[in-house]
Design brief:
The complex is a heterodimer of chains A (259) and B (175).
Chain A: E1 5-9, H1 19-31, E2 37-40, H2 47-56, E3 61-66, H3 68-75, E4 84-89, H4 95-100, H5 108-114, E5 116-125, E6 128-130, E7 133-139, E8 142-145, E9 149-153, E10 157-162, E11 167-168, E12 171-172, E13 182-188, H6 194-201, E14 210-214, E15 216-229, E16 232-252
Parallel strand pairs in A: 1-2, 1-3, 3-4, 4-16
Antiparallel strand pairs in A: 5-6, 5-16, 7-10, 7-15, 8-9, 8-15, 10-13, 11-12, 13-14, 15-16
Chain B: E1 37-39, E2 43-51, E3 55-57, E4 60-67, E5 70-73, E6 78-85, E7 87-90, E8 93-95, E9 98-100, E10 103-106, E11 111-113, E12 116-118, E13 120-123, E14 128-130, E15 133-135
Parallel strand pairs in B: 1-3, 2-4, 3-5, 4-6, 5-7, 6-8, 6-9, 7-10, 8-11, 9-12, 10-13, 11-14, 12-15
The chains are: A alpha+beta (259), B mainly beta (175).
């Protein structure tokens, strides 16, 4: 057993249909001398205490096994830990794996073994870290930047604060998690009148979202609104957002290294 | 900048319109390596906005806009602001002073009310201007303290584009 490695399994992996893949993973990791202690997330078990326990026992690599939701369960505190984070996706959704160029399933072990480590920025929404994006849907909130200007959606819409490239309608949009900045996009509600819909269908009406890049900003709403940071919901009136440069050390796939 | 070699920006800054009035002058292109800021339709910007990269405005702006790169103002944009940029292509409406250190290109749909200072100007037939112009002079790269006033009665004719209607020359009028 390699004491430098610890694995965090999501609780859905106890399901019978994942038994084969988990067994195969453990065999492969063992053959690569990467096997380590295993902790399982559960409903009433603190993920943070679980990871802290492994770190106190000498683990320097925390490997998350599950899917993007598993990653989200630990991402809010992992950047503050002195560890390298790895990710073995075994089920969908695995969009973050795609962004990190880590293959889904057994092949992810090769990425863990290659140990190509990148320091990525993380976003911060209030005091909560997020890796991919924070989303404010159906809102009339304003974005205040550096106390110098504000941006507002005239008829309401969706505000996204992106750190790592995230997905819009099946396509990846660009947000580099190494530039020390967040990308804020604002998409107004789509017009519902017939002519607008017709133009859109004909492909004549090119709508581009508002896009700015900032180091920090504040989302302010007069009404209480929900924000989803890495799919975790936070409610409030004011949401300071900022980029924390090179805060997370994470193992990425080989191809990502080239960019 | 891009994660997967994806295009940095796919917006079209140069809307199709009548051909350029001075074809020998190259149209300033959006620089590829700097991140683009887009203020799209349906969004209002209020305050002092400064950028180092290209800026495209299709929405509403109140305050000031300043960039050291390319500024593109779309046909539906409404800008009530002082504008400063290195180069600019304007197709929308601006109420405020415009200071361009390089080339200013006014599309046929452009409407400017205010003082314009620039090094080079290209005006398409149909563009509307009300105010003072200081263009091409040594002081034109800085905001002129005492701008040269054009005579209200003398239209500043600009060569119409090759395909443009020659019976309708572009005019620049001062208030």
């Amino acid at each position: 057993m390699n004491p430098a490695y610890a694995y965090i399994y999501d609780d859905f992996l106890t399901d019978r249909r994942y038994q084969d893949i988990v067994a195969a993973l453990e065999t492969r990791l063992s053959s690569m001398s990467l096997d380590g202690k295993i902790g399982r997330l559960a409903l009433f078990r603190s993920a943070k205490e679980l990871v802290e326990g492994f770190v106190n026992q000498g683990a320097t690599n925390i490997i998350i096994v599950g899917n993007d939701n598993t990653l989200n369960k630990v991402m809010w505190f992992l950047p503050d830990m002195p560890v390298v984070v790895g990710y073995i996706p075994v089920a969908e959704p695995a969009d973050v794996a795609t962004l990190l160029n880590v293959p889904v399933g057994l092949d992810a072990c090769e990425a863990i073994g290659a140990r190509l480590i990148e320091s990525l920025d993380v976003g911060k929404l209030g005091d909560r870290y997020f890796l991919t994006q924070a989303v404010f849907e159906n809102t009339t909130a304003k974005v205040k930047v550096n106390n110098t200007y504000t941006l507002s959606l005239i008829g309401g819409g969706t505000i996204r604060v992106k750190n790592l490239g995230s997905i819009t309608r099946g396509r990846y949009t660009v947000a580099d998690a190494r530039d020390g900045r967040l990308e804020i996009t604002m998409v107004p509600h789509e017009p519902t009148d017939i002519s607008s819909r017709l133009w859109k269908r004909l492909g004549r009406q090119k709508l581009h979202p508002t896009r700015i890049q900032v180091k920090e900003a504040e989302i302010i709403s007069e009404q209480p609104i929900d924000a989803q940071a890495d799919r975790f919901v936070v409610s409030g009136f004011r949401f300071p957002v900022s980029a924390v440069p090179a805060k997370l050390k994470i193992i990425t796939g080989r191809m990502r290294r080239l960019h | 900048m891009s994660l997967f070699g994806a295009p940095q920006s796919d917006f079209d800054s140069d809307k199709p319109g009548t051909p350029s009035a001075t074809p020998q002058v190259a149209k300033p292109a959006l620089s590829k390596n700097s991140p683009a800021t887009i203020i799209a339709r349906g969004v209002r910007l209020e305050g002092e906005f400064k950028s180092q990269g290209d800026v495209q405005i299709e929405g509403e702006v109140f305050g000031t806009v300043e960039t050291s790169a390319m500024l593109s103002i779309g046909t539906e944009a409404k800008v009530k602001a002082g504008v400063k940029a290195a180069n600019a292509v304007i197709a929308g409406e601006i109420t405020g002073n415009v200071t361009i250190t390089g080339k200013l290109e006014l599309k046929s749909t452009a409407k400017i009310t205010g003082e314009v200072v620039c090094a080079v100007i290209v005006v398409e037939a149909g563009a509307k201007m009300q105010g003072n112009i200081n263009c091409g002079s040594e002081n034109s790269v800085k905001p002129a303290s005492e701008p040269v006033k054009t005579e209200a009665s003398i239209p500043v004719a600009v060569k119409p584009a090759a395909g443009a209607d020659k019976s309708e020359p572009a005019t620049v009028k001062s208030s």
